[in-house]
Amino acid sequence: MEHVEGELAATPILDWKHLRVLELAAEVHGSSETDRDRLVTAHRLITTRVRPVYAMNEKQPASRTLLLERGSCSQRLALLEAVARGCGIASKVRGLLVDGRFWYTRFPRLRALIPHQVMLAWPEFRLLDNRWVSVSELYGDLDTLQKGGGFVNAGGETLFDAVARTAVDWDGLTCSSCDLSGYVLADLGYFSSRDLLFRTHGQTLCLPVRITADIIMRRRAA
Q1: pTM for the whole thing?
Q2: Which residues form the Transglutaminase-like domain (predicted)?
Q3: Are 162 and 136 within 8 A, CB to CB?
Q4: CATH, range 19-217
Q5: Angle between the 73-86 and 35-49 helix axes, to the nearest 10 degrees?
Q6: Rounded to the nearest 5 degrees, what angle is found at the Cα of 72, between the Cα atoms of 216 and 117?
């Protein structure tokens, strides 16, 4: 797999130079000592302040998600990345195509409307020792986290929330109920930003469908 360094740069999605994001980054930076602690603090603050909904616009700027105080799993992950970059922590994303059946338990009556494959931008962060850590392992290694029980993709818990409790394992490393590798249809590799991933491969839904779905879903709580 091609090596990708990741970036600190602000982008249209990761607009960490916006005052709202800078203020949150300053709060995070001042309350924690290590990069990992800052990432955990940022994750907890976003969990508290930005409620989960089923919004569809993957390219929404992080500052707008913070303003609205609501966001999809992807939008909240983007906000986490933006705050990380604002704290001087570089990030990159891994592009995964995930089988739409993964979401069947969450939308049992809407299965016919779920896309066959869903684009997932799964972030990683570079710590001070130049070691990259996946968002899956912010709260500990996968072996330890798997004791929390698997993510069932139902109820109010989203993937963004689940990483604080359990292993989100896309590679089959845990050999347990936390193993989600069976849902991965394709690994698209790493990208220096989610902007580049979506520019290269597009979003899950085409524009007309996405606009319609977003109007219906963006205020619906997860």
Answers
A1: 0.90
A2: 24-135
A3: no
A4: 3.10.620
A5: 140
A6: 85
